[in-house]
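note to self: dont lose this again. the chain is below, predicted strucutre after it. 297 aa total, dont forget to put it in the shared folder this time
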Amino acid sequence: MRKGYKKFKGVGVAIVTPFKKSGAIDFDAYEAILNHVINGGVDYIVVLGTTGESSTVTKPEKKALIKFTVEKINNRVPVVVGIGGNCTSDVVLAIHGTPLKGVDAILSVCPYYNKPQQEGIFQHYKTIAEASPVPVILYTVPGRTASNISANTTLRLANECPNIIGIKEASGNFDQIFQVLKNRPKDFLVISGDDGLTLPLIAAGADGVISVTANAYPKEFSNMVHDCLAGDFKSAQTIHYKLIDFTNALFADGSPAGIKAALEIKKLCSNYLRLPLVPVNQDIYTRIQNQVDLIEK
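---
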């Protein structure tokens, strides 16, 4: 039986990294958002994922952000750290060089750009799993990486690598996800990587979500997921349809630009991103504002 996998059922929030106008990390805003989502009922925090703009956060900043996260969360919920890349040896070095005390797992994105074969993806993750002192969650998101972890590769990793405890599935490929759900070991998690698909995926047997929307509406999104996991899909549908237009608006002009706009509207952080990312255009900002108004009226 895989150790600790049950703590990642439910709602993980892919937490944003707030910035000041100067470009520095806004740790005060970050702490406020951590408290906002934990008080809202999320089950764990994912720091330095795509939503956290990890590709433009420096190595010293990453260490500082992880240390800060662990200290401020203070064991209230588990912590997952994003550590991935397209060079296996560099990922292993990053794992060894990252302060993982107080960290419960790492989330590692499928290698991007160099388009490895499935055997290369298998060997990549097997090497990472053997090197990591904490459990590993796979992450397939071909829309960003131009590579995909196939169902067969996921199942092979699930059966052969006990330190790999699950996969964040953002392929959008229902048949692929269904094959994993059908054939996975009982202690291997399948986690939605698409907020809008979370309800149907949990209905098919998935274990939860790593969410962007939950940065803004942790209570509502957590209630929806927990209702799903309890089999109360009628209640979950009500919340799903309350949030779905907002969720779609968040991704209409790039993520995490959309959620940064929403968090500014909700006065949780400033709307600054690091290049090459820029804020959403004015039409999308207005669309997000309108959705916030509808949810909160």
